[in-house]
Write a structure and sequence with these properties.
- This protein folds into two domains: 54 residues, no CATH class; 210 residues, no CATH class.
- The longest helix is centred in the last third of the chain and has 32 residues.
- With 281 residues, the chain is mainly alpha-helical.
- Strands 1-2-3 form a three-stranded antiparallel sheet.
């Protein structure tokens, strides 16, 4: 295009207020409207269309693609469907779980009713937990991770978080069984395991509505409420384990301290260290 002609053309043209300009390279203005791209190569002409704010905050050279969240919606619908099935088929199980979350004696009542690991309602709640917790971790990672961080995205990251949560839980169960056999505290270890199990199930159910609200509103408050709920549950778990430990005379204070360090504190410290090294490298 002739430079003088292009200048005269744009000099006499009134640009509509809703016209959108994308500045992709320093010496080129790409104007997209009705699938027509006009390239103007004059730098002095470019400056007449750029405001001071746009000059100080140039647009990125790449525009990120829209994130597909359909799979998250599917997971949340699955979790709520399972919750509805628990409510419909096992109407009394949810109130018992929430009472056991608050007090140890209700947890003991669940133990007297039979092995909680074999109840169908609890198995459905386990699936909800392994949907809710990884989703919370997924949202948290995406919230705090800069866009240039080399991490997997989408459902791949979610799959890794599900695997991590399952492996962490299985290792905890294995360690509790080993400690119970080594120190001859099978009954106390089993009670601690059941209480951890119940607290996890209730936590997964509580944070599910917060995660749903965060997904569709993108309000930070709901994400923070989910994180706070998880921290409260973790504190409740530590307190419950202390109460159970002190109720058995076979547990000494040193024994209980070593147990808490091995199964609760040290794993959290290791995870925190790994996360800090990843974000600060």
């Amino acid at each position: 295009m002739n430079t003088d002609a292009s200048y005269m053309f744009f000099q006499d043209t009134v640009v509509p207020p809703d016209t959108t300009f994308y500045f992709l390279v320093p010496d080129s203005l790409l104007h997209y409207r009705n699938s027509v791209i006009i390239d103007i190569a004059e730098k002095d002409l470019l400056t007449s269309f750029i405001s001071e704010d746009a000059a100080n905050n140039p647009l990125p050279t790449t525009i990120p693609a829209t994130v597909n969240t359909d799979w998250i919606t599917g997971l949340i619908l699955l979790a709520f469907t399972l919750l509805a099935l628990i409510k419909l088929l096992f109407n009394k199980s949810l109130p018992k779980l929430f009472k056991a979350f608050r007090a140890r004696n209700y947890a003991n009542q669940i133990i007297r009713d039979g092995n909680p690991f074999r109840k169908q309602s609890n198995l459905l709640a386990v699936i909800i937990y392994f949907l809710s917790l990884p989703l919370l971790l997924y949202f948290t990672i995406n919230y705090y991770t800069p866009s240039n961080m080399p991490i997997p995205g989408g459902i791949n990251l979610f799959g890794l978080l599900v695997s991590f949560s399952a492996i962490y839980w299985l290792l905890k169960v294995l360690m509790l069984k080993i400690i119970g056999h080594l120190f001859n505290t099978q009954k106390a270890s089993f009670e601690i395991l059941i209480n951890i199990f119940i607290l996890n199930l209730v936590t997964g159910i509580i944070i599910l509505p917060f995660l749903t609200l965060y997904l569709y509103t993108q309000e930070d408050l709901f994400l923070f409420m989910s994180i706070i709920t998880l921290l409260i549950s973790y504190s409740q778990r530590l307190l419950r384990e202390l109460i159970i430990g002190f109720s058995y005379t076979i547990f000494s204070v040193l024994h209980l301290f070593l147990y808490l360090c091995t199964l609760e504190i040290i794993p959290m410290v290791i995870i925190a260290k790994v996360v800090m090294n990843f974000y600060m490298r």
